[in-house]
Amino acid sequence: MTSPPHLPRRHVAEQLDRVADELADAFHGVFAPDTVTRFVHETHALLDEHATIKTHLVTLTARFARQRLTDHGHAQGLATVTVPQVLFICVHNVGRSQMAAALLDHHASGKVAVRSAGSRPRGAIPDVITTALAEIGVGLTEAYPKPLTDEVVRAADVVVTMGCGDACPVFPGKRYLDWRVTDPLDQPLEQVRGIRDDIDRRVRALLGELLDT
């Protein structure tokens, strides 16, 4: 489902209502329909605030709202959790945090749930990032910048910050790591490869710790 640019507000509302109906069915017995509808409309507003290109905003809203509801259920103890969850945060969620999330998801093979977010998300993921990852067989074709929300932090077991300062809320019971990684934005491919390899080493080490526990 996509929403063309400048789609009348009434049509956007109708599309969001359809998304809410679909997610209410998916989360039946976990969340009330009103809760699902609230999450969907809040999610659309969050993405609309930060999006540079808004052609597929409704589709992204459906995806992000599903993730947020999943994490909210996790944080509230309403869903069964079988694997640890890691959240990567950088400033814009188009570089370091996206690379780290893609690498961990690739190496974990479903044994870890992975999230990423930005303290001030904006723009689109540069081609140099996707190229550097594709060189080692890691895809990043469906990723998009996402704002940092409360429930994704609450649902995480490990929170990895990567140059976002003190923007991340701190909750007890979480493991917080701060990785000093060079920002790959506006860097040439050769530099991005080095950053990719640095993140990859860190990700592999973290995965080894998570699977040993």
Biggest sheet layout: 4 strands, parallel
Would you tell me the overall average pLDDT? 91
CATH architecture of the largest domain: 3-Layer(aba) Sandwich
| Number of self-contained structural domains | 2
What general form does the structure show?
Answer: globular
CATH topology description of the largest domain: Rossmann fold
**What is the CATH domain class of the largest domain?**
Alpha Beta
SSE ordering: HHHEHEHHEEH
Q: What's the helical proportion of residues?
A: 40-55%
Structural class: alpha/beta
Provide the low-confidence segments as ranges: 1-5
What would you give as the CATH superfamily of the largest domain? Response regulator
Number of helices: 7
DSSP summary, beta strand count: 4
Report the C-alpha radius of gyration, rounded: 17 Å
Strand content: 5-15%
N-to-C terminal Cα separation, in Å? 41 Å
Give me the side-by-side strand order of the main sheet. 2-1-3-4
Enzyme class: oxidoreductase
Pfam family, one: LMWPc
EC number: 1.20.4.4
GO molecular function: arsenate reductase (thioredoxin) activity
